[in-house]
Amino acid sequence: MSDTAVLVDQISKKYTIGATHGAHTFLRRVIRMTKRAATGTTGANREQELWALRDVSFDIKKGEVFGIIGANGSGKSTLLKILSRVTDPTKGRAVLTGRFCGLLEVGTGFHPELTGRDNIYMSGAILGMKRREIDRKFDEIVAFAEVEQFVDTPVKHYSSGMYVRLGFSVLAHMDPDILIVDEVLAVGDVRFQKKCMGKMEDVGQHGRTVILVSHDMQAITRLCRRALLLSGGEVVREGPACEIVSEYLSHAHLKPSCEWPDVQQAPGNEIVRMRGIHVKNETGMVRDAFDIRQSIAVEMEYDVLQAGCVCVAEFKFRNEEDLILFIVLDRDPEWHARPRPIGRYVSTTWIPGNLLSEGVVRVNAAIMTEDPFLLHASAADVVGFRIHETGAGPSARGTFTGRWPGAIRPLLTWTTEYCRDESLLLPK
User: Higher pLDDT residue, 349 or 360?
Assistant: First the structure.
């Protein structure tokens, strides 16, 4: 237990839908009883139990950045509320060692009539900071939020971007032993989101324990070593962040392999039919996740059923925003522009490492014939895979942290020549 910062042991949380809580006036009780009598219902059969969490267990080591992911309604926010002591579990226990802070909402404690300065002190006090701590960090908080000119202006006059920047800055400059973060990295514009990501990396590198909940899978893989996948309030799996993210994305119908054992059900016609599409690594293993530096093989297996046709395999690669990254056609010199005999073929294209950026890639497959140009088989979103970056080894990112925009990220060769020119030296 000495190196454990957070211990979650068999936590369950039950909510009763339709239940009434607290004191009620005599008149309200009479009205409620009258309605039940008229409809023939009772309080018992109107109430339903909802288990937001069931037997959730895990532990987090001191100084670890730990991710929690899952679809909406999987129980992530309920778990964080229990860890932050906002609500109590129905069963089980959560033990946190040291001082903790929950970043569950940007702008906690802000009042629109107060200035930015006043809100920094008030919000910091609500979050558990002592006044001397706020005094010491005040200038840094204001500078990070980029509101120096407006710090003595009531926040009701702030733009939405200024408001969330200041709110995040207050939260991010606390010094707890355990930091609980819920989707606050998505504040502000893209440039400020990069600053947020860099700040969270800095927090993790200084030995503080961080629990991060986010729908941004790049943030999870970039910041976290381990992660937990929740579904329906239950733990699906816990393990290395890259593997957990890959499993989460695979639940969203992201699959690296597709086959059609029945030729009659396979895409195509009497000329040619697809039989399988596979995404593989350098050793020939089917994989759904790749380090950004790895080469990726995308393979199409198909049957040519009629001799004499010039067949061309095509892959179209798209990202999660449905942007076409690139399209490739089979240009194998052995078969290019050459009619193919009847038989089984396997055409493979290789995507080099350090080309694609982080994220999900989906693949459309097609087979055409040339002269005349005709489409004979097609399959949309037939396979998919994910690119992640561990931060180990060379990449185009270098030491830059945060989200890196762009669909591709090639690691290009640079050369720099130096020639000393005395005339450029400034006079002393």
Answer: 349
Is the pLDDT at 202 greater than 90? The verdict is no
Q: How confident is the model at residue 184 (pLDDT cuts 50, 70, 90)?
A: low
HEC readout, the chain:
CCCEEEEEEEEEEEEEECCCCCCCCHHHHHHHHHHHHHHCCCHHHHCEEEEEEEEEEEEEECCCEEEEECCCCCCHHHHHHHHCCCCCCCEEEEEECCCEEEECCCCCCCCCCCEHHHHHHHHHHHCCCCHHHHHHHHHHHHHHHCCHHHCCCEHHHCCHHHHHHHHHHHHHCCCCCEEEEECHHHCCCHHHHHHHHHHHHHHHHCCCEEEEECCCHHHHHHHCCEEEEEECCEEEEEEEHHHHHHHHHHHCCCCCEEECCCHHHCCECCCEEEEEEEEECCCCCECCEEECCCCEEEEEEEEECCCCECEEEEEEEEECCCCEEEEEECCCCCCCCCCECCEEEEEEEEECCCCECCEEEEEEEEEEECCCCEEEEEEEEEEEEEEECCCCCCCCCCCCCCCCCCCECCCCCCCCCCCCCHHHCCCC
Residue 190 is which amino acid? V
Is residue 383 very low, low, confident or very high in pLDDT (cuts 50, 70, 90)?
A: very high
Contacts of 3 (CB under 8 A, 6+ apart): 61, 62
Distance CA 199, CA 196 (A): 5
Query: Mean pLDDT, to the nearest integer, of 48-68?
Result: 89
Cα of first residue to Cα of last residue in the chain, in angstroms, is 61
Residue given tokens 């990449």 in the structure block: 395
Question: With contact defined as beta carbons under 8 Å apart, do 169 and 108 qualify?
Answer: no
pLDDT tens track for 99-112 = 777 666 666 668 88
Q: pTM for the full model?
A: 0.57
If you average pLDDT over each of 10-19, 116-125, 264-273, which comes out highest? Answer: 264-273
pLDDT of residue 284 exceeding 60, the answer is yes
At 277, the pLDDT band (50, 70, 90 cuts) reads very high
Phi and psi at residue 195, to the nearest 5°: -65, -40
